[in-house]
Amino acid sequence: MLTVNRLDQQDARLLIEGARQKADEIGVPMCIAIVDESGNLVAFERMDGGKITSVTIAQDKAFTAAAARKATHEYNEKCVPGSLVFGIHTAMGGRLCVVGGGLPVSVEGEVVGGIGLSSGTPDQDMVCAQAGIDHFLTIRG
Amino acid sequence: MLTVNRLDQQDARLLIEGARQKADEIGVPMCIAIVDESGNLVAFERMDGGKITSVTIAQDKAFTAAAARKATHEYNEKCVPGSLVFGIHTAMGGRLCVVGGGLPVSVEGEVVGGIGLSSGTPDQDMVCAQAGIDHFLTIRG
Amino acid sequence: MLTVNRLDQQDARLLIEGARQKADEIGVPMCIAIVDESGNLVAFERMDGGKITSVTIAQDKAFTAAAARKATHEYNEKCVPGSLVFGIHTAMGGRLCVVGGGLPVSVEGEVVGGIGLSSGTPDQDMVCAQAGIDHFLTIRG
Amino acid sequence: MLTVNRLDQQDARLLIEGARQKADEIGVPMCIAIVDESGNLVAFERMDGGKITSVTIAQDKAFTAAAARKATHEYNEKCVPGSLVFGIHTAMGGRLCVVGGGLPVSVEGEVVGGIGLSSGTPDQDMVCAQAGIDHFLTIRG
After folding, report:
1. Residue in D80, D83, D90 to test binding to C, most C beta-carbons within 10 Å
2. Residue in C41, C42, C54, C112 to test binding to B, most B beta-carbons within 10 Å
3. What would the DSSP string read from start to end of D53-120?
4. How far apart are alpha carbons A121 and C79 in whole angstroms?
5. Residue A113 is inside which H or E element, if any?
């Protein structure tokens, strides 16, 4: 039997809170998705003004980051024609997302979930995703 | 009427065994999928620690290799913008996988199945897929 | 943070072994799928002679049983026209399976995974799925 | 290693020929699909006037009959609310078809493929599918 740790609802709220604060600060309403370590959705918030396409994309970013234990921008870097990783962006019907903005959430070296942001530029999405994680880890202590 | 040969369950276990041994050796827990010559799943193992995204990707690699009778890394090489092969990675809803790590399994020049590995880098996946085939062919004699 | 228990590869093998023994006993080659508590595949075996359609159906039964923490035949009972449960069999593109043959696997009252059998009648599938669980629990002690 | 027999292109043409003759006789232009024993398409003909929806349905009927080694109308009989088989009609995204008109094609007791007809009533589809098989077996001798 394996024993694994995963985000609970309270953790998910902290992650969203941190991401939302940063999104407010930069003035870009976002879709924010939190998944557990298996990639299943725990919480989701579409800030007023968040994009409709981002409802799906934020979830796919969070899923990818948690389920593959890798940031989506890291896949993006390697997913260039001629690289053996190229093509992974169409896996799972395109659910495996290589657009920047999905980060695994780790506690004590173990991936316990994922966060995905979408509606801004990938750089904005990444900054907000990281802000969510920073807030979560700070409050958790 | 056509007569074709295909992997049976015992063959599939040998393929998995060889791949798993190599995965253990390089310290990367993998998802390992074996399909028959028509691309249908015969056996699957997610080693403890294998990635969730790899559950699908390993199967798609094995499917592609067997059903197209071509290693996924060979498709990858040609699947670059400007090549007429480009775009094949989105076929079948992305199930046709061009990420390295899927190999056809041949016996006496005939493709009898496919093996797909996922969770490491493509190079690691390819090495373990080949190790599965080597083990299978050695034991078979 | 939540802490959850889930089947590992060794557990999955025991479940498959018990199910396969019963399938051999009744003379019906089966597809056998084992998933973890989140519904993700851990191990799969298509016995020689198992049906191609059962490759998917066995996995979907196991997924449903684990992810909904309910036997597929229990959904089946309630999934009749006029019942408010009716229609659940089309959820998730039909992946939510209400055909008998999928059972949650529980240890000390906690669902730690699921087993799905397909290729026989639902009754045969259910008997083999239960045999897998019995074998697993007996060996585990 | 397993050795299996499957329809070749010549066999497929005989099956289509027999089905088409019957469709002409009853005055209903049909879609006719022939798959191999693994459920993969070998030949397809949309008679002038065949329905567009039937392009998919004929293929799904043939697939189901071959891959599950069972006539689609036999599934239909059992796929009634309250039966443990109910719900199987949504499996594989609905590709598992329980509408009458799909028959496995057997030679010497072994399923070597499937035939699926669509565009008429299920009874008409079934009659034409059977006519295809009769023609095939007669010519084969």
Report:
1. D90
2. C41
3. HHHHHHHHHHHHHHHTTS-HHHHHHH-STTSTTTTGGGGGGGTS--SS-EEEEEETTEEEEEEEEESS
4. 45
5. strand A110-118
Residues 6+ apart with CB under 8 A from C92: none
Looking at the predicted complex, does its ipTM rise above 0.95?
yes
Using a 10 angstrom Cβ sphere, with 0-12 exposed, 13-18 middle and 19 or more buried, the burial of residue C86 is middle
**What average pLDDT score do residues A103-132 get?**
98
C13 near C33, Cβ under 8 Å? no
SS3 C90: helix
Rounded CA-CA distance B123/B76 in Å is 13
C42:B46 CB<8 A: yes
SS3 B15: helix
Alpha carbon D112 to chain centroid, angstroms: 12
Q: What is the average per-residue pLDDT within C7-26?
A: 98
| pLDDT of C115 strictly over 80 | yes
d(CA B67, CA B77): 18
- Site of tokens 């309630």: C78
Q: Do chains D and A touch (3 or more CB pairs under 8 A)?
A: no
Could you say which residues from 89 to 118 on chain D have a Cβ atom under 8 Å away from some Cβ of chain B? 107, 112
CB contact under 8 A, C8 and B48: yes
pLDDT of B127 above 90:
yes
Q: What is the pLDDT of residue A141?
A: 76
Helices (H) and strands (E) in chain C, counts: 4, 5
For B119, the closest chain A residue by CA position comes to A68
Confirm if C6 and C36 have CB atoms less than 8 A apart.
yes
In our burial notation (b when 16+ CB lie closer than 10 A, e otherwise), range A57-88 reads bbbbbbbbbbbbbbbbbbbbeebeeebbbbbb
| Cα B43 to Cα C50: distance, rounded to the nearest angstrom | 12
| Domains of chain D from N-terminus onward | 9-140 (3.30.450.150)
CA distance C51 to chain D (A): 5
CB–CB contact D4 B8 (8 Å): no
Beta bridge partners of residue A105, listed in sequence order: A113
Looking at the complex, report in whole angstroms how far the Cα of residue C71 sits from the nearest Cα belonging to chain B: 23
- Give the chain D residue nearest C121 (alpha carbons): D85
Among chain D residues, CA nearest to C88: D87
Residue D133: what are its φ and ψ, rounded to 5°? -65, -45
Give D12-36 pLDDT, tens digit per residue: 999 999 999 999 999 999 999 999 9
- Do the two chains A and B touch, given a threshold of 8 Å on CB pairs and at least 3 pairs? yes
